[in-house]
User: Fold this.
Amino acid sequence: MGYRIFLAGGSGAIGRRLPQLVDAGHQVAATTRQPAKAEGLRALGAEPVVVDVFDAGGLRTAVAAAKPEIVIHQLTDLPPGLDPARMGEAIIGNARIRDEGTRNLVEAARSVGARRLIAQSIAWVYAPGAEPHAETDPLDSSAEGGRGISVGGVIALERQVLEASPMTGIVLRYGHLYGPGTGAETAADPAVHVDAAACAALLAVERGSQGAFNVAEPNGHVTTDKAVSELGWRSGFRMTV
Assistant:
């Protein structure tokens, strides 16, 4: 069964793997902040939507026009290749998206009666403790400096998604991304290929109860048993084109 999906962050690394959603029969409206990227989204099979997540009114109008049943949040604000010279500034901007941007998206999704909200998080923000970490382990809320900013943004995002009643909130805690569009051919553990990361979002459209899911290749830092058993996710998935 196909659903109407609003994909926030369609021009990002995971968002650009949206042919998985289209091939599964879903009708996708995908966002970008840059008009120049709109035709690229159309070529991937989506209806492009040019909107800034910080424009709450514009976002609400865009979501209302799309009338989604499912909203997928893949928004980030990171430099190409995670350029170290720009990461200090990017960490602040990314945390703002996770907090303020998520708040705007949740409100817009709720206003149209979307039934499910799936959001990108990260799997390397657990508090120090015994590994591998399960989803029930605490996040590193006492972290300081740049890590503290990142963790604070993640906590804000996850809280808003998981408290977005009456929508079912699904948080996908991705490992470090690698593969096409990420600027990396490999990644440190916990790692996940961008195709497998996008596949987890596709599976979560119809599967998974409310909560968080670690999404990463086998490693010693986090366990992915929940994603495998509830979502039917497999870390080795790759797109064929």
Q: What stands out?
A: Strands lie at 4-8, 27-32, 47-50, 70-73, 116-122, 168-174, 176-178, 191-193, 211-215. Helices lie at 19-23, 38-43, 56-66, 84-111, 145-162, 194-204, 225-231. The two ends are 23 Å apart (CA to CA).
